[in-house]
Amino acid sequence: MTRRSGVIVAGGRSVRMGEPEKTVVSVAGTPLIRRVADRLAAVTDELIVNCRDDQREAIAEALDGLDVETRFAVDDVPDRGPVAGIERGLEAVETEYAVVVAADMPFLDPDLITHLFERATGHDVAIPRPDEWFEPLHAVYRAEPAVEACDRALQHENPRIIEPISSLDRVVVARDELLEYGSLDSFDSVDTPEDVMWADGRLS
Ligand SMILES: Nc1nc2c(ncn2[C@@H]2O[C@H](COP(=O)(O)OP(=O)(O)OP(=O)(O)O)[C@@H](O)[C@H]2O)c(=O)[nH]1
Ligand SMILES: [Mg+2]
């Protein structure tokens, strides 16, 4: 089978969460990013973690013993926003396609990700649209054109996260189709201490 990569974009400052930062905050006894990595590991052959250099040690500890080859793609310049994180992560990918997710989605649905890989085949991106909004941090990209699209978007300061998608050959996966293949819980993110309590309750 074609090899598939997973990219976890984790270089944000976690301002709404505070300390400890959300990537490594414990959710029902497991660091949040570990929950994300475990779910990606079920459907990918390699993982790339994009973060800042100062996050690396804590994240490596959280991912210790993971059952898939894992590499870091550290931001050259921190705080350039999620588009820069997507670009940095996809640059490190060695497969044609990769799923890119945020580090804060503990309910990621492996079946949904597998479906996005299938839908992306022959195109540049399969982008879910569970409601009004697109989900660029829960999408499957063809790495090479997506890196170029991120690069173009970053020629403007603080590009919107949807910006790179607009110039790619995209497949939009709408709500009904998502529901056919998986759970919309996959898109829920944990951003605040209140979100941790809510996720704790659902996972323990
Ligand atoms: N590499 C990189 N990733 C980022 C950056 N900003 C956000 N992200 C990541 O993008 C994803 C979605 O961003 P947010 O949910 O806003 O996370 P965050 O920015 O850490 O949290 P807040 O500070 O509370 O907004 C998260 O997984 C972040 O780690 C950035 O400047 N660089
Ligand atoms: Mg943010």
UniProtKB/TrEMBL annotation:
GO BP terms: Mo-molybdopterin cofactor biosynthetic process
Binding site residues for GTP: 9-11, 22, 50, 79, 104
EC number per UniProt: 2.7.7.77
Compartment(s) where it occurs, according to its Swiss-Prot or TrEMBL record: Cytoplasm
Pfam families: NTP_transf_3 (PF12804)
Record flagged with keyword Ribosomal protein: no
Domain of life: Archaea
UniProt GO cellular component terms: cytoplasm
Residues in MobA-like NTP transferase domain copies: 6-153
UniProt catalytic activity: Mo-molybdopterin + GTP + H(+) = Mo-molybdopterin guanine dinucleotide + diphosphate
Binding site for Mg(2+): 104
Keywords: Cytoplasm, GTP-binding, Magnesium, Metal-binding, Molybdenum cofactor biosynthesis, Nucleotide-binding, Nucleotidyltransferase, Transferase
InterPro entries named in the record: MobA-like_NTP_Trfase, Molybde_CF_guanTrfase, Nucleotide-diphossugar_trans
Molecular functions per Gene Ontology: GTP binding; metal ion binding; molybdenum cofactor guanylyltransferase activity
Cofactor: Mg(2+)
This protein's domain notes: The N-terminal domain determines nucleotide recognition and specific binding, while the C-terminal domain determines the specific binding to the target protein.
PANTHER family: MOLYBDENUM COFACTOR GUANYLYLTRANSFERASE
Its job: Transfers a GMP moiety from GTP to Mo-molybdopterin (Mo-MPT) cofactor (Moco or molybdenum cofactor) to form Mo-molybdopterin guanine dinucleotide (Mo-MGD) cofactor.
Similarity field: Belongs to the MobA family.
The protein's name: Probable molybdenum cofactor guanylyltransferase
Gene name per UniProt: mobA
